[in-house]
Amino acid sequence: MWHLMKAVGKVSLTTPQMVKVFLTDVNQRDNMSMLTFNKEELLKIQDDVYADPEKYVAMFTRKEPSENDPVWHEFRAEYILPKEDDKDYWYRVLNDGYSPRDSMPY
User: Fold this and answer.
1) Residue 19 and residue 14: Cα distance in Å, rounded?
2) What is the pLDDT of residues 55-73, one digit of tens each?
């Protein structure tokens, strides 16, 4: 993604007389700017895509973890929801390290 950000930019086409309109009117602001492309950087990205296309397929198709996905908890040796782990943590803070799920306290 860093390479893409380096290759594609945004330029403002405003003159000093248009600054007031640019700062106050969102619709006019969009009309006064345009995307720019750096040809050298785009060619580098193209060569990299041709060299290893699987990397880019994986980059744009991988599933990002969500808040509701279970995660592996090392201490409890089971998959838990992050919110459940947060509740367990604060229960332990308020109860001197004890949790009803433990056979022994921390």
Assistant:
1) 6
2) 888 888 877 766 666 777 6
| pTM for this entry | 0.38
Specify whether the CB–CB gap between 42 and 7 falls below 8 A: yes
Q: Which residues of the chain have pLDDT under 70?
A: 1-5, 9-17, 65-69, 73-77, 82, 103-106
Same domain for 72 and 57, yes or no, is: no
Quick one: 57 and 81 in the same domain? no
The count of structural domains within the chain is 2
Q: Do residue 52 and residue 87 come from a single domain?
A: no
